[in-house]
Amino acid sequence: MQLYHHPYSLDSQKVRLALEEKIIDYTSYHVNPITGKNMDSSFFRMNPSGKLPVFKNGAHIIFSTIEIIQYIERIAIVSSGGDNIPSSGREVVDWMQKIQDWNPKFFTLSHIPEKYRFCVSKFIRRVVIARMAEYPDLATAYHQKLREAYETEDKLKNQDVLRRNKEHLIRLLDEVETQLNETAYLAGEEFSMADVILIPVLARLVLLNLEDEYISSRPNIAEYWFLVKRRPSYKKVIGKYFDGWKRYKTLIKTWCFVRIRSMLKRY
Q1: Which among 34, 61, 163, 258 is least surrounded, fewest beta carbons within 10 Å?
Q2: What average pLDDT does this structure show over 160-167?
Q3: Does the pTM of the predicted model rise above 0.85?
């Protein structure tokens, strides 16, 4: 089994948390979207959307985050002989879908300084254009990615889009806060795949320095956040890169690399 992912990708984090929680071995392949590696022809032929993560088991390839996690659950059940590992119930799946329905892209990008955001966007567009020329058979798919890049930039200038995206997040967190008043975890008293989907969302808010506004202001979520950060899966998948001083090391390394690549492209 192979997982094509990147530690900074929110959906990749969800899948890796599931793999760690279910103790599933896999071969890891890092594909950094910030440096355009998801636009390399080898990856693009496998997944023309260019999105992460991608899970591959033999000839079976899955792109949808929820479908990957459900597949991981089935693998865990088969590996255990079906003993004491129930699959996710309806409530868990409903929460997974509800959280996944919120698109973090516009929220995240709107909280990144414009000069850095523009630098990355410009670099990625150059990569896509170069790939279109190198691989004519993939030109249509690459052109779609180029169009998406321009559409994203336009939407980031639209305050209504950003407002609706933020309101969606607030409604989701308020619903989570209400649920956590009744149960220790999102779908009951036991940790589930619903929590696997939620944890990276909370981690993203912390990364953007929005913990006080979105987490600490909701006491049940704040208590839950303290609890789930202690899990070994969190420490390996997210804490390793983003807890404490590691956050600044990770971000500085990323932005410096992108700026150097962008400068080299000029000459």
Answers
A1: 163
A2: 98
A3: yes
